[in-house]
């Protein structure tokens, strides 16, 4: 069988120091897709998205990590601690997420991706965890100088979920690089994992081939963690 083509959205680095704007994606995403048997293809924002046609050319989709989603997308005013936003990226990714949900297209949504997926399906976000949901758990391990490839907090996984099936466990240690999280969860999604402070760490859309969102970054831990690898393998296998 031909290797499935996996589209991956990417970030925009604005023009600076005389260099033009550039699209960026941490190589770990491509490495994880290739290791799982897929062929990665980058999807830059910018042109008016024809999401359904883009998905027609792909076998699976990854919504990758990045800046905050504009709060207007979920009907809220910006919080003072809101970070950078990218209107073109919101436009592309929300269109892709809606098209993927509508057709049951295989989707793995990572970090910003789980947030985009929730907003695309009608949910809302907590704009800044430290300000709005103070907790003893740090969800930004870079503040503690913990490397991206290492876990920093535990999550408790719903035993009936796809994630639990892949992990073979109901408790996992994951990495964490987010200051936002899901607030109201969209009606078509179910929460399948939470951190011990209640923060949503994974969702799934039941009844579809593979629609999984995770707030952590499995692409960073895939080289050393079987569950992280299995997330990419399951995405590619469902393509
Ligand atoms: Mn976290």
Architecture overview:
By secondary structure, the protein is of the alpha/beta class. Helix content is about 30%, strand content about 20%. It has helices at about 25-35, 50-55, 85-105, 110-120, 130, 160-165, 220, 225-239; strands spanning about 5-10, 10-15, 20-25, 40-45, 60-65, 105-110, 125, 155, 170-175, 180, 190-195, 200-205, 210-215. The strands form three sheets. A nine-stranded mixed sheet has the order 4-1-5-6-13-12-11-8-9, sandwiched between helices. Strands 2-3 form a two-stranded antiparallel sheet. Strands 7-10 form a two-stranded antiparallel ribbon. Strand 2 and strand 3 form a beta hairpin. It is globular, with a radius of gyration of 17 Å. It starts with a strand and ends with a helix. Manganese (II) ion binds near residues 195 and 199.
